Amino acid sequence: MRRMKRALTGTGRLVALALAALLALVLVPALPAQAAYYPPAFVRSMAGEGRAGVYAWGAQYNPATDEIVVGDYLNYRVRRYDTSGNEVGSFYRGNPNGQPYSIAVDPRNGDIYVPEIADGSDFGVFAKYDKFGSFKFAFSTSSDYNAWATVDANGYLYVADSHYWNTSGDPPRVRVYSVNDGSQSASEVGNWSIVRNDLQMPRAYGIDVYNGTVYLSDTINRIVMKWSTSGVWQGSFGSGYFGGDVRGVTVDESHGWLYVVDASNDQVDKFDLSGNHLGVIGGDGNGDGEFAGPRQPTVDAAGNLWVTDYGNFRIQQFDAGGAFVRDAPDPKRTPGDAMLAESRDVALNPVTGEVWAADSWNQRVQKFAGDGTFLGKWGQRGNGLYGFNYPRGIGVDPLTGRIFVANERGHYVQVFEPDMYSGPFTLGTGGVDSSGTNFLRWPNDIEFYNGVAIVADRASGYVKGFSTTTGLELGKISQTNHGIAVDPATGNIFVLNANNDRVYKYSAYNGSQITYWGSSGTGNGQFRNPKDAVVCGGLLFVTDDQLSRIQAFSLTGTYLGKWGGLGTGPHQMRNPSGIACGPDGNLYVSDAGNDRILVYNPNAAKPTYESTKPTVSVTAPTNGQQLHSAVTFVGNASDNAGVANVEVSVKDTATGQWWDPSNSTWSSTQKWALAALQGSPTTNMMYKWTFLGASYGHSYEASVRARDISSNASNTTTLAFSVATPPPPDTTAPSGVVTQPVAGQKFPAGTVNISGQAHDDRGVAAAKVGVRNSATSQWWNG
Question: Is the pTM of this model over 0.85?
Answer without folding.
Answer: yes
